Write the structure tokens for this entry.
Amino acid sequence: MEQFLQQMASGLANGAIYACVALALVMIFVSTDHINFAQGEMAMFSTYLSWQLMTWGANFWVAFVAAVLLSFVLGVVIERVVLRPLHTAPVLSIVVVFIGLLAICNSVAGAIWSYLLKEFPSPFPKTDFGIPGLIGPHQLGVVVITLLVLTALFVFFRYTPLGLAMRAAAQNPQMARLVGVRVDWMLALGWGLAAAVGAVAGIMVAHIVYLDPNMMGGILLYAFASALVGGISNPGGAVAGGFIVGVLENLVAYLGSQLEKTTGVYIIGNGEKLTVALIIVIFVLTVKPAGLFGRVVVKRV
Amino acid sequence: MKSNRRTFIGGVSAAALVAGNTAAFAQKKYDDGATDKEIKIGNTNPYSGPASAYGVIGKGIEAYWKSVNERGGINGRMVKFVTLDDGYSPPKTVEMTRQLVEQEKVLAMFQTLGTPTNTAIHRYMNQRKVPHLFVATGASKWGKPKDFPWTMGFQPDYHTEAVIYAKHILANVKDPKIAVLMQNDDYGKDYWEGFKEGLGKDANKVVRHVTYEVTDPTVDSQTIQMKDSGANVFFNISIPKFAAQSMRKAAEIGWKPVQYLNNVSAQVSTTMRPAGFENVQGVITAAYIKDPTDKQWDNDDEMKAWRAWMAKYMPAGNTSDVNYVYAHAVSFLMEQTLKKCGDNLTRENVMRQAANHQKLRVPGLLPGITVSTSPTDFYPVQAVRLQRFKGDTWELFGDILAAEST
Amino acid sequence: MANATAAAALAPRRTWIWWVIGIAAVVPLLRGVVPDIVSDYRLFLVTTMMIAAIAVLGLNLLTGFNGQISLGHGAFYAVGAYVAAVAMEQANCPYWLTIPLAAVICFGFGFLFGLPALKLEGHYLALATFALALAVPQMLKYKWLEGLTGGVQGIVLSKPSAPFGLPLSEDQWLYYFTLTVMVVLYWAAHNILNSRSGRAMKAIRDHQMAADTMGIDTARYKTVTFGISAAYTGIAGAISASVIAFVAPDSFTFFLSIKFLIGLVVGGVGSLLGSVLGGIFYVLVDNSAQSLAQFIKRDLGLAFDLSAYTVFGVLLILLMYFMPQGLAGGVIRLWRAIRR
């Protein structure tokens, strides 16, 4: 029982990581209709920026805010410089551009800060936070921050004119242009926001998985799965998806180990937990093609 | 080649005339990649991809040859070091190695990095009869001169290291119940096999064996499983990121086993500090090389010389990266090997000299550890010393240990 | 060259293809004449390009001509390679027999995977295939398959040599072998696409609902296309097992699938010729990125530690900038400009 609880808690904590990155993925998708494969690497880059500021003596939260703002600017710049000229290019070409961005972010970070593992501080108090033996203070903190970011995004998209304009620009650029929305700037803004959310995710994740240029590689896969299982256009769904994937994965490992204990035969274990979790995710998607919380888009012919 | 042989024969007859002049044996002989002016050495390294953290080894070696050339080269010849990126992908390694051997015509391949990548070119190098020297992997299969006379390892192999831990556990822990965390690839497997061999009939003392994939974000789930097994010994076969995570998580969930950490992640700055010093007291590991972030070596002459070398030739390099110490040490060994070849720079002689080191002191290795090779012993560094973590540094204890691998 | 011109006379409009094949068939024989230019290594390099071209061709059939996105073709490539390696290692199967074997098994695998994929579209299909690319290398290490696959150690093979005592080196022989397979597969793909089935495939890509209403059995076509596509890529994998003479899970990481995708897009989506160009690019770009990075660092004296991976990324983005339709599109545009 103790193991079960610990596994669930750690699944939730991991889920929070996936949820964070999934949120950033959803941000870009909602505002530009693309899935950004470079999202993880961009978040990693932002995290390095905050790390650099901290080694120059900045306080954690100062570095945090500065890195988020810087990332926002960088996101806007990337959209204006790299993606703007490719507005009419086919989707797959854009995917290749994302892969190019991924390669650049990863290798430039490696060249500047080296591939050496770095520790990253946690802003949360060590004591009287979290549940001893079950969930650490930082992990609980990540869950809280994720939910905060989610709420902020929800409010932004639902209740602010800018958020509405951004959604309109992504969903129907022509109509949005007709009602006076500056579509191209909305796209850039979407990139900026996504980069900012990614920065938050990276900074939160870095304490857990440590800082190195490849830190996001594995996580992005999970985030991708999370975003889709929850419904790629729904921030709330993405967060829920993150928690689902995190818990599911640990559940598979837990059940596998229990099965091995009782039957004495190895069937599934840590080597297969990702595979099994993904099979479940795909199964869910074949039953509910728009994700658990996504809206079915009705196509007009 | 033909003209070379002719000059050689000429040399021998000339020697006969002078009667017993030993200089005759110093006649110049060359294979591909060696001339009067230059020695060409090839290398593949993962500068990109999942193992890019090791890319610094290639860069460190490059800097080393630069320093050698500034000192006047090896017996008057400049070393040309050609290193290519294989991204840790075996097919790419084959392609790059063939390019180096067949197009660039290097004399030898040196320090190619990675177990799967070296496995992919293992047979090729031996069929081509090109030296495949001091490969950068701890697998135990590189020291088999009978089947693969052109391939030689460098560092103590994982297998041997794991045997040492197993023996130490059996001798020092009462009623051990062992949990093992293992990276699910051949590096992990090699340790695991050695560990089982070392335990021998006590292999059933392993109560839990869990694995992780490099793509896993965390190993929290695995750590919880190990705690749940009721183990009192934890053998940690993981790279720094996951070693630090698992040791921190173990402390977090209140699991306090006796911990054995593989040498792969024994650096203070990349594993022990990120794990939190308070969480890693008493952890035991085996070492053969000096950790630049370990303050006990701050006033060590060899390390001071290494720092000076870094400052001059690798100014952008991170001096807390043990891989640079490694690169320096292994290049030193290669330099000594080539020096001993004299003017006889054939591939055969390179191998002969590589298998002919007696108690050579290589700077950067722990005190008391030397390099010895012979035509039947293709394991240059075989000894390790155990050390225990105390405060914020490692403390050596016990004798120099070596378990002979097969 | 005589047979090439004869064949060219039969198909006047496509002379250049026969010229290319003819030249490709003659060049390796020059190895004895100009060994420095036509070396075993270069032949090997071209062989790997052709292998990549076959794999990209398979992906193109699915993505370019049928509109189903796959981020996981590395999985089929891995299955093909492992089928070949296991058959050669465990059953002493001759290497040439592994090609149909891999094709059949990969077809089945692809077909079965195509069934749930029917339900998925766009990003969701991308995820499913993505998952496949991740799962296959892990499954190769699965405890109960280890005896067969060699687990994490992989399988070391030996390179096949030329049959019937032909005076060819291993690399020359594998070159011809791969060239033959590629030409046959290219021709087959060409014929499929110009048949009723091919038009149905493209109709589904362009508008599935319309295709459905016209009476095309979209489900069957989509799954069969998935199977054929997987078989093509699996064949490429099987040849690679013989050429590289080693298979291991580390050879088939997720990045392999990404590289096929890059080859597809850079070559030209929905163009058979583009697949071949993409395969060539796939091999060349890595090497050229490396030499370019070294050139910039050494000869232009850039102080920054520029990595080949950065150059690779920049090259990709620039290519998409100047040729968003891929090399094939770019070449055609250029050709028209010259002709005019």
